[in-house]
Design a protein that fits this description.
- There is one protein chain.
- The protein is α/β, with parallel strands linked by helices.
- It folds into 2 domains: about 170 residues, Rossmann fold; about 100 residues, Pantoate-beta-alanine ligase, C-terminal domain (Pantoate--beta-alanine Ligase, Chain: A,domain 2), CATH 3.30.1300.
- It is about 40% helix and about 20% strand.
- It is built from 10 helices and 9 strands.
- It has a 6-stranded parallel beta sheet with strand order 1-4-3-2-5-6, with helices on both faces. Strands 7-8-9 form a 3-stranded antiparallel beta sheet, covered by helices on one side.
- Helix 9 packs antiparallel against helix 10.
- The chain is globular.
- It starts with a strand and ends with a strand.
- It binds pantoate (PAF).
- Pantoate binds next to strand 2 and helix 7.
Length: about 280
Amino acid sequence: MKVVSSVVELEAVLAQVRNENKTIGLVPTMGALHEGHGSLVKRCVAENDYTVVSVFVNPTQFNDKNDLNNYPRTLDADCEMLQALGADLVFAPTVEEVYPEPDTRSFSYPPIDTVMEGAKRPGHFNGVCQIVSKLFYMVCPDTAYFGEKDFQQIAVIRAMVKDLNIKVDLRPCPIVREESGLAMSSRNTLLTPAERQVATNISRCLFESVAYAKEHSVLETHNHVVAQLNEIPGLEVEYFQIVDDMSLLDVHSWADAQGIVGCITVYCGARPVRLIDNIRYK
Ligand code: PAF
């Protein structure tokens, strides 16, 4: 497995790969890899001749400096894991390499990028589009893999790819959960063992709400999940929205859309750590 940090090296290696008519798959990450990333890499390795994994904590998608500074950085351990999974190339650039000049491009795909995370984290999806579009231009992958934990992120990237006519096949991958049900996230490492235990209530409530939803309205289901979680010391729901899986707009009845997903963000613990998760109702 090669590890490169410059765009020139990256392009040289990939030119050779393309000369050999090999398909290229990309798994964009911010590092601090866990089994969730592992599942994306495994799938990428299985479905492509050549797997590129980018490891880059993208400053432009953080609207909170503390969050950026606290984001775990574990490149050596990440590379060990990627080697074992059969990745071919790790692209781990510096901020200056990716942004030699400030990125002044702005992306806007309302309402997909303005609701939920878009409303709570102004500028976040603009930063995601900046980095993901750059990675797509640098790597020119045939396929790219993203985890469904970031349900809204996938929708925004899909809109961007369509808007910019980028020829890449986006492959969303299911959420990977710890045995406790907690959705895997690099942020879980910021939780104490006790907080991690408390955090398992998020997925538990979401799973239970699927059965509850069969006999209750959207509003009742919404209120039930929020009330249950807010009662637990150490948890505070920032938002829970039950949305059409295409438009990401709130639904008011279970008949309002063909696909319906509940997206939640919860603050957990003393720091606190912001955790996201989602559940499909139909
Ligand atoms: O999901 C992430 O880890 C990041 O948002 C991504 C897609 C790697 C862009 O920095």
